[in-house]
Task: structure prediction
Amino acid sequence: MSSEWTIFLNFINMAVLASTPLLLATLGEILTEKSGNLNLGVEGMMFMGAIASLGAAYYYEKAVLGLGGTPSPVMATLVAVAAAAAAGGLGALIYAFLVVTLRANQNVTGLTLTIFGTGFANFFGELIGKQAGGFVQVSAPTKAMFGIINFGALSDIPVLGSLLFRYNWMVYFGLVVMLAMAFFLNRSRSGLNLRAVGENPATADAAGVNVTRYKYVATITGGALCGLGGMFISMSSTACAGVWVHNSVNGYGWLAVALVIFATWNPSRAWLCGLVFGGLLVVRNYYPIPGLPMQIYAMFPYIATILVLVFASIRQIKEHAQPASCGMNYFREER
Amino acid sequence: MIHQEPFVRVVKRTAISKRKVMLFRLIALAGALLAGALLVALLGYDPIQMYSDMVSGALGNSLLAVNRKGVLAFSTSSQATLKIATLLLVTALGLTMAFKMRFWNIGGEGQILVGAISCSYIAIHYGEVWPQWLLLLVMFVVSCIGGGLYGLLPALFKARWGTNETLFTLMLNYIAIHFITYLQYQPTWQIPGTTFPKIRDFAASTRLPMVLGVHVGWIIALLLAVLVYLYFAKTKQGYEVSVVGESANTARYAGMNVSRIILRTMFISGAICGFAGFMQVSGADGSLTTDTASGAGFTSITVAWLSGMNPLLMIIYSIFIAILARGAGRIQTTMGIPKSAADMLIGIILFFMLGVEFFINYRLIFRAGRRGEEAKAV
Result:
C-alpha cells in the first residue's frame, strides 16, 4: 500500500475517533432538545462525565488492590461507564429541576451548568490527583480496555480492515446509540410522544402525555449520553488516555451543541456531521497546507461551525428545524 | 372533589415587596454558601477555615495601608482582588448591553482578547517610539474598535438572518485564543533574538498609571458602571435596547429600527469588553498571553446575571466574585483545596439564585390552605 493510502486511512481512523465524543454528546443534546429543553450545559456535563468515569475507575482499582485482589479491567470499565452516565445525568437533573420544576431561564441555567461542570471536573481532577500523589491515572489493563480492540485477522484485511476494525469499543457503541435513537424517535410510541412534547407541550398535555415526566426523562438520559461523551475524552482520547488533564473537554461540548443544528435534530445525520467535524479536528495533523501556520489551521473547526450556523440560518430549514417549543418553558397554569 | 385537588398549587404572585425579594436572595446566597460548606466538609476539610481563609487571602489584614515606600496603597492581597474585580465589572457591563436586548453574547472572552490583541499591536510596535499619552490614547481607541467589531460580526448575521448568536459568539472565543497562539510564534512579537513562543512584555510607557497601587482602570470601571446605569435609565438608546429585549415585534410596531439597534448595541457591548482587554494587558499584566481573559468572559455572565442586570449592583457582585476567585488561590496554598473550587462554588451560587427566582415570582399553596390558612403559604 502506498504511503498516501496509509496517511489517508490513518486520517479516517483518527477522524472517526475524534467524532465519537461529539456524536455521543450531540445525540444526548438532540434527545434533550426534542423534549423542548435547550440545554447549553453539554460542555459541563461532558466534564462531569469525564472526571467521574476516571475517578470511579481509579477508586475501584484502588479499593480492590487494598483488599489484596487484582482489579478486573472489565469491571473497571463498567464502573467508569456507570459513573460517567450518572454524573452527566446528575448535571442534567439539576438543569431539569431548575427549568422544568422551578421554571428558570434555560439559557442561563445551561451556561451555569457549564461553569459548574467545568469547575466540578477540574476541582475533583486536581483533588483526586493530589491524593494519588501527582495525577490520577488508571492501570494499564484498564487503559487497554479503552484502547483499540484487537480484531485479529479482521483488522488485517486491506483497506476495509483498517477502515472498520481499528477502533475502541465506544466507536461502535456510538453507532448503536445512534441507531437506537433513530428508531426510538421515529418508530416508537414514546418517541412520538416526546416529539409532541417538544413541538407543542400544551397539545401533548391535553392528549394525556405526562409532559413533566417526558421532559425529565429525556433531559436526564441526554445528560447521561453527554457524560459518556466526556468519558471518551478522559479515557480514550490520545490527549488523555486514562490520565486527568486540566480542562480536557475544551470546547467539545459547544461543538456538539452546534452539531445539533448542523444535523437538523436527526440522529443519523448527527453521525455524518460528527464525522465531518471529527475530520476537521484532526486534519491538520495529516494534511498540512503549505504556508498555513498550524495555529491558524487549528481554527478550522470553529470557523466551520460559524459557517454552518450562518448557512443553516440563511436556508431556514423549516421542515427539520428545531422543535417548536425549544428554549421555552411550559407552564400548565399559564396555557 | 377535595381529594382531586393537587397537593400543592403554584400561583403567580401579584406583588412582592422589594425587601422580601432581597431577603429571598440573601437566603439563597446563604444556602449556596452552606451547600459549598457541606461539600467541603464531606471531603474532610474545615469549611469555616476555608471561607475565612478565602476572605483574608483576598483582602489581606487591612484594605489600605502605607506601604514600604511610605505611600498609601491597597494591601498586596486586595490589589490582586481589585484587579480581578475591575476586569469582571467592565466585562459584565459590556455583556449587560447585549443581555438587556436578550442577545446572548457569550463571546466576552473573545471580545476581551481581540481588544487586547489590537492594543498590544500598538504597544509592541510603537511602545518605544510614541509618547505615553499618545500610546495610551491610541491603545484605548483600537481596543474599543477591535472588540466592537468582533461583537458586531455575530450581530450582523443575527440581524440579517437570525443566526444563532450564542454559538457564533462562543466560536469566536476559540478563534481569538488560537490567534494569540499564532502571534506567539511570530518573530516580530517575540523577544528579539529568541524563538520561544511568547509575546514580549510591554514597555513601561504603554502601562496605565497607578492609583493607590492598582492601575487606574478600577476608577474608570466605577465611572463606567454609573455611565451604563444612566444609559439605561435616562437615554433613548438605552430604552430602545430594553424594548427590543422585551419584544422585537413591539419595537417594530413602535417604529424602531430593530436591526440598527442590535448592531449598535452589540458594537458597544464588544467595545466595552475590548476596553476590558486593554485594561488587562496595559494595566494588570503588561503582556499578552492566552490567559489574558482567563475565563472572565464567562464569570462576568454570572456577575451580570446575579445583579439582575443592574450596573450599580454589579460593582458589589464583581467584588464578591473576585474575592471568591482570589480567595480560592489562597485556600489552595493554605489548605490544599484546588482553586477550581471557586468555579464550582460560583456555579452553585448561580443555581441557587436561579432557583430562588421561582419563589419570588410564584407562591405555593398547599392543600391544607383550603381551610382558610392561605396566609401560611410561602
Chain A touches chain B through 48 residues (CB under 8 Å).
